[in-house]
Design a protein that fits this description.
By secondary structure, the chain is of the alpha/beta class. The chain is built from eleven helices and eight strands. Helix 5 (106-118) crosses helix 7 (139-154) and helix 7 runs parallel beside helix 8 (180-197). It binds phosphoenolpyruvate.
Length: 252
């Protein structure tokens, strides 16, 4: 049985006071959801603060990105060992906003995944197609390319320590959500791709859905057999909404 994971991607949001009140709100309700993993992904500048606020809670901490390499002349960048040092356990890799706005290509995403594994962080590899790609019937080819480019570099066994997030680009921050059936079809395809490489990893790897998940659509999405939780953007900035999504993930 795969443990559900609900991850809140705060993106570039939050002040010190907002972060404090968001964490207070989440942690007050989170104790009721001990059967799932709850993860927050603040900005780099808030990681240390959130780490301190999360002491003596079960809520996990992750970063939204890293740069390959441990240290060096990479102005503005943050490495995997630095994230471990500050208390992170997880890191997002290849979020569609990184792939599009920051022009991260397949090779860079794969190198970042490798750096996360080397630093002993759990990478959450984000994959997903654009609206045009879906309309052209290219969804599976795009997902396969995004996954295979990482598998080629790191090998399938690295996925024992990884999570995959299926995030259709057309659903991120748009209010459009994949139907549970559309999402399930892609999740099943991803699991099959992993199974083609290694059956046991396919059975245990958690595959999250992301893309305008809200309290009112979460239950139906999480009822799908291959959806193991959610990567939540907008709705993770409101403690009540985020907790309602956690609640929805506690029941099949
Ligand atoms: C995301 O940024 O990963 C995301 C899924 O955002 P939203 O929930 O706002 O669509």
């Amino acid at each position: 049985m795969r443990k559900r994971l609900i991850a809140g991607n705060w993106k570039m949001h939050g002040s010190v006071s907002q972060v404090k009140s968001l964490i207070t709100g989440i942690q007050q309700g989170a104790q009721s959801y001990s059967t799932i993993d709850i993860l927050v992904l603040p900005t780099f500048v808030h990681l240390s603060l959130v780490h301190d606020l999360l002491q003596s809670t079960a809520i996990k901490l992750g970063a939204q990105d890293l740069y390959p390499g441990a240290q060096g002349a990479f102005t503005g960048a943050v490495s995997g060992p630095m994230l471990i040092d500050i208390g992170c356990q997880y890191v997002l890799i290849g979020h569609s906003e990184r792939r599009t706005i920051f022009h991260e290509n397949l090779d860079l995403v794969a190198a970042k995944f490798k750096a996360a594994i080397s630093a002993q962080l759990f990478p959450i590899l984000c994959v997903g197609e654009t609206n045009d790609e879906r309309k052209q019937g290219e969804t599976e080819a795009i997902i396969e390319e995004q996954l295979e480019s990482v598998i080629r570099l790191v090998g399938i066994h690295a996925f024992q320590h990884a999570i995959i997030a299926y995030e259709p680009v057309w659903a991120i921050g748009t209010g459009l959500t994949a139907t549970p059936e559309q999402a399930q079809a892609v999740h099943a395809f991803i699991r099959k791709l992993i199974a083609n490489n290694q059956v046991d990893i396919a059975k245990t790897i958690r595959i999250l859905y992301g893309g305008s998940v809200k309290a009112d659509n979460a239950r139906a999405l999480f009822a799908m057999p291959d959806i193991d939780g959610g990567l939540i953007g907008g709705a993770s900035l409101d403690a009540n909404q985020f907790l309602n999504i956690c609640e929805a993930s506690c029941t099949k």
